[in-house]
Amino acid sequence: MPTGSTKARAPSAPHAREKRFRAAIAAAKEVEEQLRASEERHRALADALPDLVFRVARDGTYLDCRAGRTELLLLPPSEFLGKKIAEVLPAGLARDLQAEIERALATGAIQVLEYDLAVDGEPRSFEARTVQSGANEVVSVVRDITERKRNDEQQKRLQAAISKAALEWQLTFDAITMPLLLLDRGGRILRLNESARRLCGRSFAEVVLHPMEVLGDTEPWRAIHALLDEVAATQAPAATEARDAQGRAWEVQVSAATVPEPQLRLVAAARDITDRIKLQESLLRSETMSAMGTLLAGVAHEVRNPLFGISATLDAFEARCKHRPAYRNYFAVLRTEVTRLSELMRGLLDYGKPPRLDLAPAQAAKLAATAVSACAALASQSGVEIEVRIGAGLPAVQVDRKRIVQVLQNLLENAIQHSPPGGSVMLRAELGGGESLRFAVEDSGPGFHAADFGRIFEPFFTRRRGGTGLGLSIVQRIVEHHRGEIAVANRPEGGAAITVTLPLGLPGAGEA
Q1: Which of these, 457, 117, 126, lies nearest to 278 by C-alpha position?
Q2: Could you report the average pLDDT of every consecutive run of 10 residues in the chain (512 residues)?
Q3: Does the pTM exceed 0.70?
Q4: Which residues, 6+ apart, have CB-to-CB distance to 291 below 8 Å?
Q5: Residues 6+ positions from 253 with CB-CB distance below 8 Å
């Protein structure tokens, strides 16, 4: 009889097993579906890739192939699957790929190989990435990198062209003989050429990105710096001329480069115009001297006759009254002044007379000896010693001997007169730069006044009491007629130095 309570009946064992079996089948089907879906996704992904994917056995046999771009295959898959790479690819490439397979299987690391291969007669470049995919097989993903390689080559060619252009620009920039600077708006140095580096005595690394002050407070840098603000503000070119302490003349120009405003660049150029200025000054001086010489020669001729009469009268008067002591001082003063006027007239005539050079080879030692001999009495009277130093093996120089001796004598006399008793005067002769001979006369006097350097060769300019101011003017004129140069300076140890440089060979003679 029923008791009024029930108990759950346990399922039979066969029924439970069947239930578990059905659950396992369902789970397996689900896993299978997931695997199938995953495979389809991977297959779709592989098919979407432009790469070629190969499964290859250890011995190089093609096992499978997925081709995103079938036109890159040498053969259809049906013709190479099951074959070895040595049967499909060129021998050299096949050896390289087989080696990649062996390394991938040995190390487990991805192996990368780039190679070139002709496909349908067109050369192409590929990258193969090989990785182990099983105990005895690998997967090799091959990508067409032809365009990348072409772009890389094009970039290399472009970079090479840019580097070549930069080098050519730098060589051109450095080949320009005048100093050039490229600066920013604030005056910082961005570039400077070889000529500018030599002039400032600094390397590129020492000055680049530094302000102009790093070049020093000398010319032409000072003149360039003075123009920078004006050009930066107006962007109009500006120019000026300047002279440095060594007497060099500079033509300086600053211009704005045509770049966008925030990157304004200033180009500064300095041209050494010393030779041009010297030529202009020489021409002007020659014209002035010619006109002055003509005038002075006429004056000298007019004065010489009365002066001769005064001198003759003085001689007669002195002969008659020489026994009267009261007149003796008057005769001395008159004789001194007449002599002084006569020397002035000779100087004026010499200055005004256009010289005709009588050229002949002359030895520096003989020229120096003749000039020193002519000055010996004055040196002895002044208590000044003359030293001579002649370089060994000096070649002969083509000069008018009389005129050059006159030059050396005038310079020696001037040096003796400005040296104190007990002092010395040095006459040197040596080879100059290029094909030239250089004479230098150095004294132990006070040297030149700084304010006088521009006037030293002016006619009638002198600071020596009793001097005519024509000596150095005549010297300069003779030197210039020999196509030479004369320069003056103060010696660091004290005293003045005057240097005369003469070309060894002077073509032709005649009036200048």
Answers
A1: 457
A2: 50 72 77 70 60 93 88 90 94 95 94 92 93 93 91 90 84 86 89 89 88 87 89 88 81 82 82 82 70 67 73 78 74 75 68 72 93 91 92 89 90 91 92 86 86 71 62 82 88 89 68 36
A3: no
A4: none
A5: 237, 238, 239, 268, 269, 271
